[in-house]
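Hi there,

I know you've been waiting on this one. I reran it after we fixed the sequence typo, so this is the corrected version. Both the input and the resulting structure follow.
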Amino acid sequence: MYSLDLNPFNLIIIASVFIGLCFACLLIFAKRINQKANRFLGLLSLVIVFWNIWVLSLDLDLFRYLPKFYLIPVNFSLALGPLLFFYVKKMTEPEWQFSKTTFLHLVPLAFELIVHLILCKEALGKNILATDTNTFYTLIPIVQLFAIISILAYAFVSTKKLRQYHSWLKANYSNDDKYNLRWLTRLIFIFGILWFMMVPYSLIDYFVFNFNLGIKDYYPIYILLSLITIWISIEAFLKPEIVFLEKSARIQTVESVKPAELSKEIVEQAHSLKLDIERNLYYLDSELSLKSLAESLDMHPNTLSKVINEGICKSFSEFINEYRVKAVIEKLNDPAYSQITLLGISFECGFNSKTTFNRVFKNITGKTPFAYKKSVEIYN
């Protein structure tokens, strides 16, 4: 008679299956603004759920009591990397559409499914367990190695894509905190590190133990991977959705050039731009973007970007936020504003986030807003 030999580790994995399944369904089916991107992440969570079911089937020895269970394909590890990249791609480029060429990213998954079919054919032909076949000991390690390489490669490409996205934000939005995906960058980095840790595990298992290490030996990695995947899903679902107020083509960030290389026209435009900003107080608009400012100045966004990057040697956000910080400092030194909170003053000066305000203020002045306010009160 079969009895479940449960322990704290597989109980954690069982819990992760149910939690992961819940958030996978929410991400796939919940109608939200970023739903198209969320579906890719939901599928990624679903792949991890199926993978955990496979881990549990090995751990609880279900193959001996349900010998045909292996006929069900539940391992799609070569889909993890592409799904992660598709999610990042859709989040950073909302206009991106899934095309026929995109399916090329999923070609390695076909190899994994072919291996599964070969394994099933051998197990059925010899009437043995799937885990006892030559295919399992020969090809599964190769699939496992390909999966690790694939995930690490896609994690690297996804991180690079996020860096480009944040550079674009800095060049086009003065307040970018509500659009940033730094939380995703951190989690992908952790996700990649955990998969990298699979390399020594797999090499030791294959070359030292002849691929005979049990599931229990992989418990730490499996549990951590399950937890980080659930973490990414929860963060993605609970974070405020990214909604750009305007749809525009991506503006390429222009590299700074030396002052000696600047044309007279750029210098004059930069000087005129500063006068316009100071006279019209455009920086007080918390939703100011490169496109909206260009429209106000009757300039093309590319021209404005070039003037700011080359003529002032700053990014758009740096340029605008310097005016905002200067306005905050003026108010902190004005007794008429002594009863207004720091956050209230920051909002009056064009900031729309406490986090952005604190970060920008310290980067420019070298002090936190609170420390600066205290120093002003002491001297006054």
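Quick highlight: Residues 251-260 have pLDDT under 50 and may be disordered.

Best,
R. S.
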